[in-house]
Amino acid sequence: MDIRHLQYFLEVARQQSFTKAAEVLYITQPTISKTVKSLEDELGVTLLDRYGKQVQLTDAGHVFFRQALEIEKSFRSLSSELDDLMNLKKGHLRIGLPPMVGSSFFPMIIGEFHKAYPQVSIQLFEDGAKKVEADVISGALDIGVAVLPTVDEVLDHFVFVHEKLNLLVHPSHPLAGKESVALQELEQDAFVLFREDFALHDRIIVACQQAGFQPRVVYESSQWDLLSAMVAANLGVALLPETICREVDHMRVRIIPVGEPVIPWQLGMIWRKDRYLSFAAREWIAFTQSKLGEQVK
User: Fold this and answer.
1) In this protein, which residues make up the domain named HTH lysR-type (predicted)?
2) Residue 70 sits in which domain range?
């Protein structure tokens, strides 16, 4: 058994498919199937229950999966520390970004970082902030961007955005001419929201409940421009961060500050504070903190 066997097994377990795991690892399916079977023979247990094109962990597989994850994390940490000691100044970063954040803040920063550290490769994963946070905690991502505050104390962060949510309404909406609105005034409106894996989904619903009503959600999406288009089609109202509102077509919708209560939108770069940070991760944190210009937690 070597680390490669563990990595093949872990990817099959994550994907629940030999075919998908082979695609992710850029190897052939027979190779990965043979390796996992060899691992099972060596251990004398069945790790994966194979049925059709899908696989699931057996009881023994669940036990082995947990231990294999820890071994893989330790191996990755050892490799990173040795690279740092040799001062190679290279590495690989897995960074999670919510879709509405990436295009607004990071293209230029990623370009400048690549110029400064050409031997550090970056792999970006676009997911809702809740999924990004969970993946940083699990170790699937090295670093992520999340809506603060985070729910887990194992995370450290620095803040780079302090904003609030604004209301988007159709120009014909009764509130379209107001300079500000109270959340309670939206009790009879239909809402278009981000999906449940976005932190703003829960935050908006909780804010409405605290204002005394349960919002009537008619549509959910992962794309802010689609939500804006739904408002422009007079299908509902939306609450979006100030940064996003600057990108919205102001001819098709009206943007109104929400004054009572103000719903904050605070973004931060997050990472595990109890885990070794590679050279690449440390440099990314320092570099983005200097560029985005906010204080450390």
Assistant:
1) 1-58
2) 3-85
